[in-house]
Amino acid sequence: MKYNERKFNMDVAAVAGLREAVIADYIRGLQLTSDETAYRHGYFWVKCTQKTMTVHIPFLTEDMVRHSVKKLVEKGIIKVAVLDEDKFDHTYYYTFTKYGEGLLDDNVCIETDEGDSAGH
Fold first, then answer.
1. Rounded to 5 degrees, what are φ and ψ at 100?
2. What is the pLDDT of residues 78-106, one digit of tens each?
């Protein structure tokens, strides 16, 4: 996938919305690639600021990200927590609930050589 392309999970989009699905995909990517992960309470959490999300998803404002994260939490797709022991660091950590994992795992998306997507 090219830098200026974004993908999303259709099941998450159907439940929560398109912006929320793009953010969920971004969080999933961070879980797989970030050094800022922690295993706590039976979940893999990833640390990320909402400002950082807007850098990587530039068509969203911080307010849009804040609202979309809140919606993902309300829909039971993700969990949000402050896990740092440093009392001055209030950066959020994100993880998927079992329901959210199920939404992500049930969607199959295959990328072809031409960069097109086919599937589900």
1. -65, -40
2. 999 998 778 888 899 999 999 999 998 86
Q: What is the pTM of this model?
A: 0.81
Q: Please, which contacts does 22-29 make with residues 24 or more away whose CB atoms are closer than 8 Å? A: 22/57, 22/60, 23/53, 23/57, 23/60, 23/65, 23/68, 23/69, 23/72, 24/72, 24/77, 24/78, 24/96, 24/100, 24/104, 26/53, 26/56, 26/57, 27/78, 27/94, 27/96, 28/96, 28/104
Place 36 in a pLDDT band, splitting at 50, 70 and 90. confident
AA letter at 10: M
Class of the CATH domain delimited by 10-107: mainly alpha
Contact 11, 99 (CB under 8 A): no
| 12 CB neighbour count, 10 Å cutoff | 26
